[in-house]
Structures are given as structure tokens and as C-alpha cells.
Amino acid sequence: MPILETKQLIKTFGGLTAVSEFDIYLNKGELIGLIGPNGAGKTTAFNMLTGVYQPTSGQINFLDESVVGKYPYEITQKGIARTFQNIRLFKDLSVIDNVKIAYHQNVNYSVLDSILQTRKYRQEEKEITEKALEFLKIFKLDHKSQEYAKNLPYGEQRRLEIARALATKPKLVLLDEPAAGMNPQETQELLGLIKWIREYFDLTILLIEHDMSLVMNVCERIYVLDYGKIIAHGTPQEIKINPRVIEAYLGEEVPVC
Amino acid sequence: MRAMDKNRLIVAAGAVALGIILQLLIWNGTLNAYYAQVLTMMSIFVIMATSLNLINGITGQFSLGHAGFAAVGGYFSAIITTRLQLPLPAPMIFTISLLVGGLIAALAGFLIGLPTLRLKGDYLAIATLGFGEIIRVLFLNWKYVGAAAGMWGIPGYTNFIWAYMLAVLTVIFIVHFMNSSHGRACISIREDEIAAETMGINTTKYKVMAFTFGAFFAGVGGAVLGHLIRLLHPATFSMTFSVEILLMVVLGGLGSITGSISAAILLTFVSEALRKFNELRMVIYALMLIGIMLFRPQGLFGRKEFSLDLLTDSRFMFKSSKNRGA
Amino acid sequence: MLKVKDLNVYYGGIHAIKGISLEVEEGQIVTLIGANGAGKTTILRTISGLNKGKSGTITFKNTEIQTMPAQEIMAMGISQVPEGRRIFPAMSVLENLQLGAYRRKDRAGIKNDMERVFDKFPRLLERIKQQAGTLSGGEQQMLAMGRALMSRPKLLLLDEPSMGLAPLFVQAIFSTIKELNQEGTTILLVEQNAHMALSIAHQAYVLETGRIVLSGDAKELASSPEISEAYLGGTIGH
Amino acid sequence: NKPAEPAAPAAGDNTEEGDIVIGGILPMTGAIATFGQSSKKGVDLLVEQVNAKGGVLGRKVVFKVEDNKSTQADSATAAQKLIQQDKVVAIVGAVASSNSLAAAPIAQEAKIPMVSGSSTNPAVTEVGDYIFRAAFIDPFQGAVMANFATKDLKAVKAAIMTDANSDYSIGLGNVFKDVFTANGGTIVSEVSFVSGDTDFNTILTTVKNAKPDVVFVPSYYDTVGLILNQAKNNVGFPAEVKFLGGDGWDSPALFELAGDAANGHYFSNHYSPDVDSPEVKAFIDAYKAKYNEVPDALAALAYDAANMILTSIEKAGTTDAPALRDAIAAVELNAVTGKIKLNEKRDPVKSAVVIVVEDQKQKYFTTVNP
Amino acid sequence: MAEFLQQLINGISLGSVYALVALGYTMVYGIVRLINFAHGDVYMVGAFAGYFAIKTFKLPFFAALVAAMAVCAILGVIMERIAYKPLRNAPRVAALMTAVGLSMFYQNFTIYRIGAQPKAFPKIAQVNWQFAGVTVSNSQVLILGTAIALMIILHFVVQHTKMGKAMRAVSQDRDAAMLMGINVDNTISFTFAIGSALAAAGGVLVGQYYGVVQPLMGALPGLKAFVAAVLGGIGIIPGAMIGGLILGVAEAGVSAVGFSTYRDAVAFGILILILIVKPAGILGKNVREKV
Ligand SMILES: Nc1ncnc2c1ncn2[C@@H]1O[C@H](COP(=O)(O)OP(=O)(O)OP(=O)(O)O)[C@@H](O)[C@H]1O
Ligand SMILES: Nc1ncnc2c1ncn2[C@@H]1O[C@H](COP(=O)(O)OP(=O)(O)OP(=O)(O)O)[C@@H](O)[C@H]1O
Ligand SMILES: [Mg+2]
Ligand SMILES: [Mg+2]
């Protein structure tokens, strides 16, 4: 029983077809990779899954319900969270506020509660702060909770973005190139982290990544996208040796690891 | 948390004490009617500036329509106090009129917020400016409220303590709102709308909410103003008025409530102090404004809040808003 | 060709570059590696004139360039592929490339170079009319590289040129860098992908929180255990 | 409740102990700054003349102007400042009725007489018994021109062009409409513009096509000049169609802006330079000598308003509030803008003259008595 | 029919006045992303410069026009250097506020120095053409013609010249523009010089057309030009022209059918309706940011 399933998903921009045959499914608890050459349409596919772009046509079912036409916030509330290829933190806010904002949809107190600063408000606020700090601790960011997000080094910004996505309490997380801009050392750490959060939060994860050391090591299955079409699908071992993938994406020189 | 609460209590107590002291000084004549008038105007501008800050500074929606909301509040409250003969004591009539003025302004804010929210940045600015002007033109043509001659004979219910109390209430409301998850939702829209949406925040809802609350207080401000100068005229609520309030918000620092308060007080004071220069008044005012902007482009307070912590922690003069609630 | 001496750069109160000296010989590829936030980007920006150092000197071909405005430094033959690509998002791919040749007047040469760029990055030719801001991340990276080439620089500063690129393109970029170098362009390369960087570079500098902690022949550094431990991901490697 | 005597002004620019301080609430900046500047020049001239003759009650007169930015809120605050800080004995101002209405309740409560030169809305003096004016009220002037149109010009079809932002303009327009229709005429077109507009071609085309006999334009010279100009030169109004206006037309700027397009049109005014009134001649000469320009209606009205105050102080022999108030109420003055005598509503009862423009000059046409 | 045509012509000539001012507005916006609130007041300064050139220095009309443009070009550069340049890296709204301050300064300084009284601007010899019951004057044609010519020239400069490319590059990313070897300071100065010279041209032509100059003359056209620029898609040069004409014709239409008191309300109403349908103006592309 897949948690997410797409059928015949198409996205065109004017005359340009960015995504045309995009049929994937994700089972609960899986960690799946989406790879493909630059401009293949991976980010566009993410944008459709999260409601940032409306698909030109096709279906997206999440937990047996169509999410096509839904607003991004509704989709997030349903349980899909994401990170962005170009980091989109709330740069001028503190690290902890970034996480607290993501916690918003789980807040129950009303505006009136906050104006009157009722007990409910105070209790929940306290809880939010504690929860947020907990998240930061998991991502080893707690010592920087009062820092401006923009002042964090790149790798930490990436981590914060993941933490923020998880604070929305998602069932499915989409990560767009989480290792971009990280050095191999940091990538290794990230690899461990991704594995760990999947277990700890009981998540399904779909990730886009060009760093094969990451993809091949964590993903259970991999989809390969080229010119908007899925050209291959299989386990890392299968993908590595798939000639079409090698030709379109990996190149002759088989990458490290 | 503890220290925070304590500081807040001190601020609140300080605010109340200041109000009482000023009112006592007014009663015993140490502060004459002129000073009372200026203090009242300052309070009104505090209401206007902080409420605009909610829209512009906190939610990041560039609105130039605040004068329109003030007009709605002013006129409808004046209708209550002049056109209806309510058999109630004056303070009650005034309270009702403030509420009605505020609520109708809030409705206007809601109605304006809805269709214009698709607009971004400068486009939103011009659309809200347009709405403000439309509202003004409607009042200009509405005979019932005096059209171009204005509406006069409004009872002078406003005095310093009323305006001051309402300003304090406005500030409390906005600060409490800001410090809640709802307020953070608004802030996230300002910071990055797309990211906010993917955090599960219904950006439309919160933008409309900010507009509605902002308009409510602008309406109350307009009502207080109307009952101070006892006359409402469409010309009062021109674009210049909106710009003047925006000046206060920017000068204080977008998003900084203490900034808005300080700037409202400062600009009212400066404008008063320069009055006697007649033709040169606005020349000096303009030069000063440019000077301050060049000197502190991010506003007097940036996004930060002036805080009592400086008393306990001498290293920092200003405390970042990020620390609050922690 | 390029000499940086005792350079100190501050961001407000943050001392980002702490007395760094480095040299780039004509015709070489020199790489600068280091963890996030070490100050690599800051060095490149300061060389380009986008940041100003507080003290120290930067000389290019024996001319002090630290006091020069960025556009004049560029006119001397230093081009940069900046971090985060910094393409002009509302302009077409073609216009972006044309801007790369802003300071040049030789029409024939420009045309020639344009073809060379399309040769190296055929994807750009496919997207020649597209608004650059809507390109995919990798496409933008190619555009940024192509744009820098259009100025025919003597010294090319590259800030993480392989970031966000598919493996195939990473290989392509590195071979392009090598080719350019062979054609006579001197290159200062900042990379996270230290493996690749060290494999093509002649010289390398290792940066740690604003200071140079190691420097020397790239091949030698690549095989030094400290480097492999800290920057090559430890366990994995050749 | 404020003792006004002996005037002990707060320390301020060139004010000394014992001076008589008169306040002014005038729009020195903002949309109608031009009227504020004229008004101030008028009062300054009077004060200079009076002080040259030894002042009032042997004391020097000082005129303190507070700018009101042409806004209501500032008018109210300015009134408070003049009364509380500057301890003025009386106030001249404001210019626009809406501004006067904001200042008047404060003057009334403090029992400081306030005389407006140019606020024409009847409501201004209704605020209380300390509020006076030097100008005609809207109903009078509007009626004068409506009757003039019917009786002298035999007009049956009229058009009205008003400034939607100006209560003066709308007030006059409304009265004109009422009286003209009561006289049996019809209003064939009503259009409006806003102060600051420069393009009137559209509304003039509309008006022209309604084929009126007369067009009533109760606005100020700065816009009327442009309207007359465009009516003749752009829209091609036939010469038979007469434009009519009120005292707002009175300024040399009108003829500059309209050129020969002003010729043949009529407006009501307080005085005519032709009339052999020594007051008018003296005023115009003195004004020209001091400022090297011809005064407009606002300068004359402000001059008279201040004159009402100073004459009354002299007469009352004191600056004490109630006595001064009574003296102003009883004032009889051969003023520049006509003989001023106030009725029980504290509005002047004075006759109007109708001026015709000939050769880009004002020419006396007829006098209309209230 | 004749009336309709006449009103259409009135609307177009009013619209071309708006367009003339809006062109400079939109160009400056397009390059520096600044709503130059003081633009209308530069237009006023230009009109006064023309006025004094004719009255005091006895220059012929076209020489006065050029002189006014030169004066304002210099003024534009000075104003940019003093009031805007220091704020380049500040929040955008800071520069907006100094623009408001400059606007206040120009208006009130002129009131202070020259007086608030309107001054009659000498007109050029008036020629009226009549046909089919409608009248068109040479001034109207001159303004419309100038606006169209300037629009074409500007559009060409910005889109197809090297300077124009530099201007656009600066508007999108200043650091990157520097890396291309573009002198950012000069480019922005140039932009302000052109924008201000255009405002001056508008001021002189319009002053001449209506025969009047006064210190607050820039306020209303400044606002209307802003609206026109937004209507057409702010930053887009042909958009300013289209926006100006639509606004002018709409206002004329509203007045012609007898709702002149609601003129500005209707003008803004149209603006809002168009923006709701096309949130980035008529020619603006509403591209959702790529994430
Ligand atoms: N808004 C848009 N308008 C026009 N074309 C677009 C738009 N967004 C994306 N594209 C095009 O669609 C194609 C797919 O882009 P997308 O960003 O999805 O690629 P990607 O697979 O994520 O590549 P990369 O790995 O380089 O990030 C690209 O060729 C891009 O130029
Ligand atoms: N604009 C800025 N303001 C304040 N501090 C900055 C700014 N830019 C960089 N820094 C700080 O200067 C230091 C060096 O940053 P720099 O960007 O040069 O590092 P880097 O080596 O390029 O890192 P990365 O690998 O993440 O690109 C970091 O600590 C960073 O936080
Ligand atoms: Mg992508
Ligand atoms: Mg870097």
C-alpha cells in the first residue's frame, strides 16, 4: 500500500515540457532516491508534490487522497514536508524561531488565548519551546538556538532546514540536494543523520541528490529522471550498472565508493 | 522565563504609572492643555503606527492604506456619537463608538485584504493606497457625513487618558499577538512566503488577519482623533496621512514595536517643535528625515526591541526580538 | 601572477580572514580547500574587489589591486564564478553570456568564445532564449561558468563550480577547467569536492577558520593522511 | 478661564513683556500654502502699520503665526499652543472653514476671540460667541451670483463646476444651485474637479455640450485661471457663455494664468480697486510697496480680520477676554473689504460688488446689498 | 459622436501627460527598484527651471527645454549620490522614505524660496486643428508625440544597447554586475540622470501646455504617473505608456458620463481590478519565483 503515488504527472512551462512521464510510488518507511541530470525535472516534480506548482495534468495521491490543486500549506498539513535546493530559511530569525514556526500547525491555542495570555497559551508556548529545543538537540544545533539563521555555516543551515521540515510532523519528507555544498566529511555525517531520523520519526523519505556516495549508500530504491521521464528504477546496485543511467547521468568513470 | 515575566511586569507597571503621573500633572495644571493635546496626539500616532507595523513590519505586507481605515473608524464612530441619541452616559457612548468604528474599519480591512493579497510588494502598496483613496472619495461624496464640508460638532470625548489607555491596549495586543505562534506565522510570511507556506502556514489567512487587526486599531485611532479635534474631514485622511504613519513605522524600524512607539513620539514632537518656523517647518522636517534615514537606514531600532534587559545586562543596549518568549 | 599578503578581512566585528598569504603562479591551477565557513568565499570576493580587506596587500601582475573598484579589477583580467551562481535571473541565457563579454570590443572574438561555450555546454544552446532564473540549478551553474569564460580572463576564480551538478557534469566541469588551464588560463579553484580539486591542481592551500594551515603541492597533500582524514571524508577515498 | 491681562507672553522671538500678542493659525505649508502666505502678508502689513503709529493702547503688537499644514488636527494643536504657550489675546484664522472648525471650539472654551478672514462656512461662527469672521458667508455670495445671473445676465441655463475637495467651493455651489433654480433657472450640468488638477478639458467639454448660458466656478484663482484659459483656448467656449465666480477669483494671478481668456467674465468680491474707497487704495498701495505685488482677496480679508481685533482692543481699552469679545461683536469698521458690521451671528453684513474682467483687469460692475 | 471623439482626445492628451511622467518613474524603478516618490517633484523643478530659463534668461522654448533637462539630470545625479547611494544595501523601504523626504523637501523648499503662488508659464504659439467637430491642439500633439518618441528611444536603450544591458544587470544583481566589469555607480547615476531629465522634459512640456507652474504641481501627476506605471507593469517602459493612456482615457470617460466627483475613485478602482486579474500589471509577467 503506497503512501504516495503519482500517475502520468506532466508539467509544461510554455512550450517546454519539464516533466512528462513521472510515475512513482513510495511505500511507508522507504528511503528513495530521485536522481537525474541537471534540468531533468527533479525539482519541478518536488514542486508539484508540494503544491508549489500546479501539475499541467496527472494525479498525485497521498495517503489515498488526491492532493492536486491543494495549497502548499494544506499539503504540509497533510504530512508532506520538504527542503529546498536553494536553502530557504527564515534568515533573519533565530534558529529556534525557525523551528517554532514550523511547529505552528500543531498549535491549538487561539489568537484570543495569545492576546489574553491564557494558561493554555503559556503552557503550549512552553511546550513549543521545549519541543523546538529538543529538535535542535537532535540536529546538534541547540547551542546556536539564539543565533540568526543566516549566520550559520552552510552545513548547519542545511541541517536546520531539515530540522525545520521535521518540526511540521510530516509523514513524508522530500529533501532536495541536502548534501550540496557539503564536504565529504559532512556528507558522511548527513548520511548517518538521514538514516537515523527515518527510524526515529518513522518517516518515508524521498531525496534528490547528485552525490552518489550518499544516494547509493542510503537509498533502498532509486528513480532516474531524464528529460522529464523516468528512465530507470531499481535498487542502487541495479542503477549503478544500468547503461542508460551511465550514459545519461553517471558517466563512464564510475564514481567513488 | 522568570526574568522575562518580571521585566514585562515592570514595563507594564511603568506604563500605567506614567499614564497616571501625566494625567495628574494635566489635572493640576502643570501640563497645560497644549501639552495635553500634544501628548494625546502622540498616543494616537502610537496607535496608528503600531497597528500599521503589524501589517507592514511584522507581516511584511506593504500597505499604504492606513488613512482609509482611520477614516472609516473615525466617521462611523462619529455617526454613533452625533447622529444617534443613545441614552447612555458619555463614556459608554464613546466606548461603543470606538468599538463600532474599529469593527467597521476591521471589516474594511478584511474586505480589502481578501482580493489584494495576491499582490506583492509595490503592487500591494499601490492597491492599498488606491483603496484608501476610494474610501476617502466615498466620504467626500457622502452627504450624511457632511461630504466636502466635513462632519463637525463631534463631542470632544477624547482626552489624554483615553488616548493613552487605548495606545497601551493596542501595544499590549500587538506585542502579545507577535509573541504567539500566530504572530510568528505572520513574521514567517514577511521572511519568506514560499517557505512559510511549506511550513503549513495558511498565508492568506494570516495576511487577512493582519490586515483586519491592523485596520481595527487604525479605526480606533481614527475614532479617537475625530473625538479630539471634534471634526472629521476627508482631507485629513489623505495619502499624506498614510505616508506619515509609514514614516513612523520605518523610522522606528520595521517590525519593532518599541521602534514605532518611539518614532511616533519623536516625529510628533519634532513636528510640534518646528511649527513656529512656518514655511521652513517642512523643509527642516524633510531634511531631518533624510538625515535620520541615512544615519540609521534600518530604522532607529532595526528589528529589535528596546528592552529592560539593558538594566540587568549592561552589555547589550538592545535585545533582539528573537529572544522573546524563550 | 597573483600575490596575497597578510590579508585581514572583517565582517563587522567578525574577523573572517586572519592574515592570509598565498600565491598563484601564472599557468597553474591552485586550489583552496577547507570546511564550511573557513573563509574561502571571502578570499575570492576580496580578490575580486567585492569585499575590501582591512589590511594586507593583493597584487596582480605586480599591480596593487586592493584599492581598485571591482569593475577595474575585472578589466585587468580577473573573472569570478561566484558562489551561488549569481546569474542575472530576469535575463535570457544569451544576454547573460553577452554580459560576460561586457568589457570586450572584439566582436569576432566574442562570437568565437560564445561558440566555444556552447560547445562545452550544449544545454545552454538549447535554452538560449530561456529566462536564466528558471533554469535548473545545474543549468545555472553552467551558465555562470560560461559567462565567466566570455570575458577571456587571465585569472579565473572558481567558487565551488561543481556544486549541484550531476556526476557527468562534474566530470565535464573538471575537464573544462583542465582544458582552460592548458589553453593558458590561470585558475584559483575553491572546492568542497577536495578529491577532484586536488587531482587537477598544481598547488593547494588548506584553510581553517580564516587561517592557512597547510599548503604545498596538490598531489602531495592529497596523499597526506591529515588531509584525507579531515577533508576527503576519512574512510572513503581511492 | 485664562486671564489675558496684562498679556504676559511666554518668552519667544522678539516678544517683550507688555506686548500685545495676536496669534495666527495659517496654512504656511501644505496644499493651500499659497493662501496662508497671502494671509500672513496681509496681517504682517497691518501690524507694521499699527506699530509704526505707536501700537495699540500704547503697546507694541506682535503677530505670531503657527503653521497648520492645511490640516484639521494641526489647526487644533496650533490653537492650543497659541492660547496656552504664547498667551495670545486673540487669533486670526484659519483660512479653510474645516480648519477653523477644528480650532474654534478650543478658542471658544478658552474664551479667546478668534476671527477668521476667509472661512465662509456658516457653521464656523456657530461654534460660539467668541468666533467671528470677516468674510461673506457661503449663502450670501452664492445667492449674489445666482441672482446676478438671473437678473442681470438673463441666464436660464447654468452649469456648476466645483472643487470636490473644498468646502468653500461646494458651499457656494450648493447655494447658487438653490437660488438659481428658485429663480426659475435650470442647472444643466454639474461637474467637479479636485484642487491640484491642471487638466479641465474633459469636464469643460462636458459642460460646453450641455449648452449653458452661464458657468458658475466658485473656486480659487489658481484653478480658475486654468479653467478659463482651457475653456477658451482648448475647448472653444463661445464668448456669450459667461463664467461666474466668487471672491476666490480675486488675485492678479488669475489674469496671468488665464490671459485674455478671463475677459468678459464676472465674480463677486468685497471691494473693487475702481471704487474710490480710500481704505482700498491705501491698502493696495501699502501692500505693493511692501511686497512688490498686488494683494489677493485672502490678504485683504486677513488684514481686515486682524484689524477687527486691533480696533476692538483699542476701543475696549483692554485685552481682557469678555470686554474684547464684546468690542469685536460691536465693531464697525471701514475695512478694505467693505464696511464691516457684524450681525448677531457674528457674521459681517456687508455689500458685495460684482466685478467684470476687462482687458485682464478688474472693473466695477455693480453693487449688491445683502 | 463628436463629443465622444473629443473626450477621447482629451483623455489621450491627459494620458500622455501621465505617460510622460510615468516613463521616467518606471525606468528608475526598473533599474534601482526604487519608488522614487520625489519624481513628481523633479518634474516640478524641471518646470520651474524651464520657467526661469524663459522668463529670466530669455531663452527660446526649446533651448529652455534642454536647459531644464540638463539642470534636472544634474539634480538627479546629485540626489542619487547624497540620498540614495548610501542606502543601496539598506532595506528598500529606507530609500523609499528618503524619497518621501526629498519630495517634501523639494515642495516646501520651493514654497519657501519662490512662494506658493502659481506662476504663468509662457505658452508657445497655439495652433488648433479642427476636423469632424473635434479640436486638437499642437501642444497636445507635441506631448503625445514626445511621449511616444521617448518611450521608443528608452525602450531601445534599455533593451538593446550595451548601456541598457548594464542597467538591467545592475538592477538584478549589483555584485554580479561588478564582476562583469560594469561600473555600477556610473550606471545608476546615468539612470537617474535620464529619469530626471525625462521628468524635466515632462514638466516643461506640461507647464507650457497648461500654462502654469507651482510648487505642488508634481504631487498629483507624480501619484498618477505611479499608478500608470504600476498599471502597465512597473519597470516596463511600454507599460508606462499604456498605463498612462488607460488612466487618462478612463478619467476622461468617467468625467464625461457625469461622475467627475468619483473620478479618482474610479481610476483607482480600475487599477485594482486590473491588478486582481493581472497582479503584475498589464505587461508584467507574473512569474512565480522558481524554488
Ligand atoms: N518556472 C519555469 N519556467 C520555465 N522553465 C522552467 C521553470 N522551472 C523549471 N524549468 C525548466 O524545467 C527543467 C527542469 O528543471 P528542474 O529545476 O526541475 O531541474 P532539476 O532536475 O531539479 O535539475 P538540477 O539537478 O540542476 O536542479 C529545466 O530545464 C528548467 O529550465
Ligand atoms: N556577509 C557576511 N556577514 C557576516 N559574516 C559573514 C558574511 N559572509 C561570511 N561571513 C562569515 O565569514 C566566515 C567565512 O565565510 P565564507 O563564506 O568565506 O566561508 P567559505 O569557506 O566560503 O564557506 P562555504 O564552504 O560554506 O562556502 C564565516 O564564519 C561566515 O559566517
Ligand atoms: Mg533541482
Ligand atoms: Mg563559500
TrEMBL record, chain A:
Keywords attached to this entry: ATP-binding, Nucleotide-binding, Transport
Which GO molecular-function terms appear in the entry?
Answer: ATP binding; ATP hydrolysis activity; L-isoleucine transmembrane transporter activity; L-phenylalanine transmembrane transporter activity; L-valine transmembrane transporter activity
Matching entries from Pfam families are given as: ABC_tran, BCA_ABC_TP_C
> What's a BP term from Gene Ontology annotated to this protein?
L-isoleucine import across plasma membrane
Listed GO cellular component terms? plasma membrane
Q: Which residues form the ABC transporter domain?
A: 4-252
- The answer to whether the entry has keyword ATP-binding is yes
Gene3D superfamilies named among the record's database cross-references: P-loop containing nucleotide triphosphate hydrolases (3.40.50.300)
UniProt-recorded name of the protein: Branched-chain amino acid transport system ATP-binding protein
Automatic annotation (TrEMBL), chain B:
Principal location: membrane
Q: From the record, give the transmembrane residue ranges.
A: 9-27, 33-55, 67-86, 92-114, 121-140, 160-178, 208-233, 245-270, 282-301
Q: What Pfam families does the record point to?
A: BPD_transp_2
CDD domains from the UniProt entry: TM_PBP1_LivM_like
State the coiled-coil residue ranges: none
Record's keyword terms, sorted = Cell membrane, Membrane, Transmembrane, Transmembrane helix
An example Gene Ontology CC term for this record: plasma membrane
Localization, UniProt? Cell membrane
Kindly list the GO molecular function terms attached to this UniProt entry: branched-chain amino acid transmembrane transporter activity
How does the entry describe its membrane topology?
Answer: Multi-pass membrane protein
Which protein are we looking at? Amino acid/amide ABC transporter membrane protein 2, HAAT family (TC 3.A.1.4.-)
Organism name: Geosporobacter subterraneus DSM 17957
UniProtKB/TrEMBL annotation, chain C:
> Does the record's keyword annotation contain Transcription regulation?
no
Q: Which InterPro entries match?
A: AAA+_ATPase, ABC_branched_ATPase_LivF/BraG, ABC_transporter-like_ATP-bd, ABC_transporter-like_CS, BCAA_Transport_ATP-bd_LivF, P-loop_NTPase
Family listed? Belongs to the ABC transporter superfamily.
- GO terms for MF: ATP binding; ATP hydrolysis activity; branched-chain amino acid transmembrane transporter activity
Q: Which residues form the ABC transporter domain?
A: 2-234
* Coiled-coil annotated spans: none
KW Nucleotide-binding (keyword) present? yes
Per UniProt, the keywords (alphabetical) are: Amino-acid transport, ATP-binding, Nucleotide-binding, Transport
What is the protein's given name? Branched-chain amino acid transport system ATP-binding protein
Q: Which Pfam families match?
A: ABC_tran
Gene Ontology biological-process entries: L-amino acid transport
From TrEMBL, chain E:
Q: What is its main location?
A: membrane
Cellular location of this protein? Cell membrane
- One GO CC term on file: plasma membrane
Using the record, list the residue span of the signal peptide; answer none if the entry has no such feature: none
KW Transmembrane (keyword) present: yes
Question: What InterPro entries would the database entry show?
Answer: ABC_transp_permease (IPR001851), BCAA_transport_permease (IPR052157)
Cite the CDD domains for this sequence: TM_PBP1_LivH_like
Lineage, top-rank taxon, reads: Bacteria
Asked whether the keyword Lipid biosynthesis is assigned, the reply is: no
Q: Name one GO molecular function term.
A: L-valine transmembrane transporter activity
Similarity comment text for this entry: Belongs to the binding-protein-dependent transport system permease family. LivHM subfamily.
Protein name stated in the entry: Amino acid/amide ABC transporter membrane protein 1, HAAT family (TC 3.A.1.4.-)
